[in-house]
Design goal:
mainly beta, four-stranded antiparallel beta sheet, 2 helices
């Protein structure tokens, strides 16, 4: 979560610095950026509780401490149930009774500090992650890339998010994961390689891939976020904050998604 917030600050700052071009000097006050609410929530097809986190951005020059937001009213509705979440720690809210089912629409309601934020997401049907593997990406064998294998369903638009874990710890350099859509490979058997920095993988380590089937709005958000925070993004058009699927100018996203996991031991 802190990774996402740090990215937002960088995005805003770069947009301010580059948005008008190089023809005149722009005086930018980075010390007085208005804090914005950041909401991240998920409902999935695994047993709950499901978690919603709420925090705020900070000024660009502030310490890397993003304050959690307490005292919010958080409700998730769907699958014939309405669940009022409990704040289990500052800024972290957990469900009690709601269950995630593919094909169902889930809605999020957050009321905090006099403002209301809403979102909705439909959980796609699950796609089986058949297996995973890995391969060295260069002749020195000093970088390992994970490879996923799965059958994409035909005649359906599918959107995927991949998260990598090394010995049960998520890769720190890519907290939003890699995203992929089947626009050019609908109905095909897919071999998808994850090009993340994996120089710390050693023999005997356990590499785990989590494949989430996500809806189109969540894919668009994560794909835009990934693109504008890539280290090569300065070669692209002027970056901007991605459009969240949460209302009222909030940052973050709410996702109803399925989960598939596979692990492999590095030999």
């Amino acid at each position: 979560m802190q990774y996402l917030k740090r990215k937002y600050l960088v995005i805003v700052s770069v947009a301010l610095l580059l948005g008008i071009g190089c023809k005149k000097v722009i005086q930018v006050n980075l010390k007085n950026v208005t804090p914005r609410i950041v909401i991240t929530g998920e409902v999935n097809n695994q047993p709950g509780p499901y978690i919603v986190t709420i925090s705020k951005t900070v000024n660009y020059t502030s310490d890397n401490a993003f304050p959690p937001v307490s005292g919010a009213l958080v409700i998730i509705a769907g699958n014939g149930n309405t669940d009022t979440l409990t704040e289990t720690s500052p800024g972290t809210y957990a469900t009690h009774t709601i269950t995630g089912r593919p094909g169902r629409l889930y809605s999020l309601y957050v009321s905090v500090e006099g403002k209301v934020y809403t979102s909705a997401s439909t959980m796609p049907q699950p796609v089986q992650l058949d297996s995973i593997g890995y391969a060295a990406s260069n002749r020195f064998n000093d970088k390992i890339n994970a490879i996923t294998y799965f059958q994409d369903p035909p005649d359906v638009s599918n959107y995927y998010q991949f998260n990598e874990y090394l010995n049960q710890t998520q890769f720190q350099n890519n907290r939003v994961g890699s995203v992929f859509d089947d626009r050019l490979s609908d109905g095909k058997y897919i071999t998808y390689t994850l090009y993340n920095d994996s120089t710390d993988i050693n023999k005997g380590d356990t590499l785990t891939i989590q494949m989430n089937c996500i809806d189109e709005n969540v894919y668009n958000y994560l794909n835009t976020l990934s693109s504008i925070t890539d280290q090569n993004s300065f070669q692209s058009p002027t970056p901007d904050n991605p459009t969240s699927n949460i209302s009222n100018n909030a940052l973050g996203y709410f996702s109803a998604n399925t989960i598939e996991k596979q692990s492999v031991i590095i030999r």
